[in-house]
Design a protein that fits this description.
Blueprint (H helix, E strand, L loop, with lengths): L1 H13 L8 E11 L8 H8 L9 E11 L4 E26 L2 E6 L4 E20 L9 E22 L5 E3 L6 E30 L4 E11 L1 E2 L11 E2 L2 E11 L1
Antiparallel strand pairs: 1-2, 1-12, 2-3, 3-4, 3-5, 4-8, 5-6, 6-8, 7-8, 8-9, 9-12, 10-11
């Protein structure tokens, strides 16, 4: 998959050398995933049980695009964007304690924190139709559009994970306690590919003879199905919006 990403970036970088009167864009977006789901959503389970905050998975999305003019009002845009967030967290209501060479999660019990990392990433490679209703020879160039793409994505959990499906009873002088085994695990679905969609709108503001400032809003539509490490969970919600600032170079 790295070869696909590198190839896409090289194509975007080299395309301006083969044509004229088109646009190459470098952009930075602040991506806000929707992170929705029901009780069987991995998002929901992690946020309910762990110390993770939703804000920790909001962050930068770098992007490159090449725009090929079809006519005064329409163009095709080939783009690639990169988003990755990896955070460590701990279980809120459990700590681990060793019993007979095994570690168990005890509720509200003195022990060590149970920690793992939760990582998500997506790399959309998209082809979109861009519309400039007023043309491009205006002081401010509004635009809107949308398209389809191949989204390369990864979801990964790594570290100590509580197995709530296997309760044990620990006999304590104060009464029996239900505990759960703790295992070190690496659960991942890496570099999977799904089809997604995007929509965007914004305005290009000239700041030089061949340069414009790009202020925009983009929305990615993507829900993916697990099939291996997270089988049994509901579809994972990668939908989200980006507030985008970019530089357009006209050729």
């Amino acid at each position: 998959m790295k070869k696909i990403i590198i190839t896409a970036v090289l194509v975007l970088l080299l395309l301006p050398l083969t044509a004229s009167a088109n646009i190459f864009t470098i952009r930075y977006g602040y991506f806000v995933p929707r992170m929705s789901g029901g009780p069987d959503s991995l998002w929901t389970i992690e946020f309910d049980n762990m110390s993770f905050k939703k804000s920790a998975y909001q962050g930068g999305m770098l992007g490159l695009s090449y725009e090929y003019f079809l006519n005064r009002n329409f163009s095709l845009e080939l783009s690639v964007d990169f988003y990755n967030r990896r955070k460590a967290g701990w279980y809120l209501d459990y700590t681990q304690y060793q019993v007979d060479n095994m570690f168990f999660a005890f509720p509200d019990f003195y022990g060590e924190a149970i920690i793992h990392t939760f990582e998500v990433s997506q790399t959309p490679i998209s082809l979109s139709l861009k519309v400039t209703p007023l043309g491009r020879r205006v002081r401010f160039v509004p635009y809107f559009g949308g398209g389809v793409g191949l989204y390369i994505w990864t979801v990964r959990l790594q570290g100590d994970i509580v197995d709530f499906s296997d309760p044990w009873i620990y006999s304590d002088p104060g009464g029996d306690i239900t505990v759960y085994p703790v295992y070190y695990s690496l659960l991942e679905e890496q570099n999977r590919i799904s089809i997604g969609y995007n929509a965007f709108a914004g305005v290009m503001v000239p700041i030089g003879s061949r340069t414009t400032l790009d202020l925009g809003f983009r929305y990615n539509f993507l829900k993916v199905s697990f099939r291996e490490a997270f089988e049994g969970f509901e579809d994972f919600d990668f939908n989200g919006y980006s507030l985008v600032l970019g530089l357009n170079f006209w050729f």
